[in-house]
Specification:
The chain is of the alpha/beta class. The protein has one domain: Rossmann fold. The chain is built from 9 helices and 6 strands. It has a 6-stranded parallel sheet with strand order 2-1-3-4-5-6, sandwiched between helices. Helix 1 packs across helix 8 and helix 2 packs across helix 3. The radius of gyration is 17 Å and the shape is globular. The model has no long low-confidence stretch (mean pLDDT 87).
């Protein structure tokens, strides 16, 4: 039976933020990819009526549905806030055998990086894009995100499955040291950090229009999920 991959998007995003990764992994006949949009993130939803507990319940029901289909090996990929939800699932369900954190939002708002991007590099488009998305939601909605992080940050110590931490070195939302903090909190025996060189917070959508670069990162994730000796040969601290 194929291995299930569950991809969880970030705050004020949607399942389509990782569409390239979804499609790329689906080409591998060993995988069945699942992706959905979290409550409150559809354009027709009312942000102010969503509580963080609804996100937790949603992903729990989702993975339990996948388990009920007969999948006994599930790989979870979480981007930004989705990384926090992925960490929770990995801590709770024994069926989760591998987890991939992509700029997981355990420690958010990298103002030092913002200053470098805007003042030194004059690179502010991505930051303004994300800031605009947050402003167009609501303060209560944003506070639900912060409550989620506060409530579930401690889950990492209960994560024992294999883990890959991907951290963009020019992330304008999550601080660079976020990767080490996650690494140190995990109880996994097999855990890896890889920094994505010259990448921002949104890896597969938005800032990165270089298809070959997206392919390189997606292939790196695919090989990690496949495992084996090939992964051990290609793992790098920076790609």
């Amino acid at each position: 039976m194929k291995k299930a991959i569950l991809i969880i998007h970030g705050f004020v995003g949607s399942m389509y933020d990782n569409e390239y990764l979804m499609n790329y992994l689906e080409y591998d006949n060993r995988f069945k990819v699942f992706a959905r949009t979290l409550p409150g993130h559809d354009k027709h939803d009312n942000y102010q009526k969503v509580e963080y507990t609804e996100w937790v319940t949603f992903v729990e029901n989702w993975i339990e549905e996948i388990i009920s289909m007969g999948y006994k090996k599930i790989y979870v990929i979480g981007h930004s806030m989705g990384g926090v939800l992925a960490g929770h699932l990995a801590s709770k369900y024994k069926e989760v055998k591998k987890i991939v954190f992509i700029n997981a939002a355990y420690h958010t708002l990298n103002f030092n990086q913002n200053k470098i991007d805007i003042i030194k590099n004059k690179d502010y488009k991505d930051f303004l894009y994300l800031l605009t998305k947050v402003i167009h939601t609501s303060i209560p909605f944003f506070l639900e995100f912060t409550r989620l992080v506060k409530e579930y940050s401690n889950c990492l110590k209960d994560v024992k499955c294999d883990a890959l931490i991907l951290q963009s070195n020019k992330d304008q939302v999550v601080a660079l040291e976020n990767a080490n903090l996650i690494y140190n909190d995990l109880s996994s025996n097999n855990k890896y950090i890889t920094y994505l060189d010259n990448e921002k917070h949104t890896v597969f959508y938005g800032n990165n229009n270089n298809v070959e670069r997206k392919k390189e990162i997606a292939e790196y994730i695919r090989i990690y999920l496949r495992g084996g000796s090939k992964w051990k040969k290609i793992w790098k601290e920076i790609i």
